[in-house]
Write a structure and sequence with these properties.
- This protein has 51 residues and is mainly α.
- 59% of the residues lie in helices and 0% in strands.
- The protein has two helices and no strands.
- The protein has helices at 2-19, 30-41.
- Helix 1 (2-19) crosses helix 2.
- 0% of the residues are buried.
- The model has no long low-confidence stretch (mean pLDDT 85).
């Protein structure tokens, strides 16, 4: 499950680079992207909210 989610995030990252007229970076690690997303979102992004 986490592998397919990381793969999808990696492809979205590559498409974002292409939309910014940058070259795709196939050597960029999916795990590196995962930690980048965690850092950007911060712990508040994963906080549970009351319904």
């Amino acid at each position: 499950m986490i592998g397919s989610t990381l793969e999808m995030a990696w492809y979205f990252y590559q498409m974002e680079r292409l939309s910014q007229e940058l070259d795709a970076n196939p050597a960029y690690s999916a795990w590196k992207l995962f930690f980048r997303i965690l850092w950007q979102q911060g712990k508040n992004g994963f906080r549970k909210e009351r319904a």
